[in-house]
Design goal:
mainly alpha; Glycosyltransferase; three-stranded antiparallel β-sheet; 9 helices
């Protein structure tokens, strides 16, 4: 597949970020050093051609660019990519309303949008420059609470944890306390699959679920980004690459 796609160039910041992340994994897992080097060289080429000096007013495109720049910066250990991510991050956070956890320029968020934004903030928090980590953490927490919880993107939560996965202390916790902040919309599918809505909308004072469809591609993207929020077995958001590619 790498050979088939090697000559292609991404058509958007989202494609560029996804390609860089995939190529970093390919570089890490390749048994042939030449293939690994070629994969990382292609990732660097994409970053240089499409993300360095990146400008856009679209917060999702900004988020994707940040994710791609941090990913290539971590893979190559080249600080210039993290510095470039800082520049885009400054533009992203300048548009953020921390009181409501939303971006001023955007009031409709689909599941893929939320995944890109959470992913980018997580990457900045974990592997960005130190000066940006506190702001990334604060923005991530506010955005997560606003969209996943208060916004109703998480459609379902059980009324209480009493299954085999629950710890003893969890079984007696009131569901309203354990799962959702006090003013969050009630899950319309309580007790069923824990899946995200396709789209949520902020009207300036309250949230609504404007499409409760399950879009599998976006749902899996969000699941992956949430899986990478913290280090745990099976979560490897940053392939352990140590050498830069010429």
């Amino acid at each position: 597949m790498f050979k088939a796609l090697e000559a292609r160039d991404p058509e958007s910041p989202q494609e560029a970020a996804a390609a860089i992340r995939a190529l970093a994994y390919r570089s890490w897992t390749a048994q042939d050093n030449a293939v690994g080097d070629a994969a990382l060289a292609k990732a660097r080429s994409i970053a240089e051609g499409q993300l360095m000096g990146f400008t856009s007013d679209d917060v999702v495109e900004q988020a994707a660019a940040i994710l791609g720049l941090v990913a290539i910066g971590d893979a190559t250990k080249d600080a210039k990519y993290l510095d470039a991510a800082d520049e885009v991050f400054a533009s992203l956070t300048a548009d953020f309303d921390p009181k409501h956890g939303v971006f001023n320029s955007k009031n409709v968020y689909n599941v893929d949008d939320v995944a890109w934004i959470i992913g980018s903030l997580n990457f900045m928090l974990q592997r960005g420059n130190n000066d940006s980590k506190n702001a990334a953490s604060d923005t991530l927490l506010a955005f997560y609470e606003a969209t996943i919880s208060l916004g109703g993107m998480q459609l379902s939560a059980p009324p209480g944890k009493n299954g085999v996965m629950a710890a003893e202390f969890e079984k007696d916790l009131p569901s309203v306390v354990y799962y959702h902040p006090a003013n969050s919309p009630p899950p319309p599918m309580v007790g069923k699959l824990l899946v995200p809505a396709e789209e949520i909308t902020w009207d300036g004072s309250s949230w609504s679920v404007t499409s409760d469809k399950l879009v599998t591609a976006g749902a899996m993207h969000l699941a992956n980004e949430l899986n990478w929020l913290g280090p745990h077995p099976g979560s490897i958001p940053f392939p352990p690459l140590g050498a830069s590619t010429p």
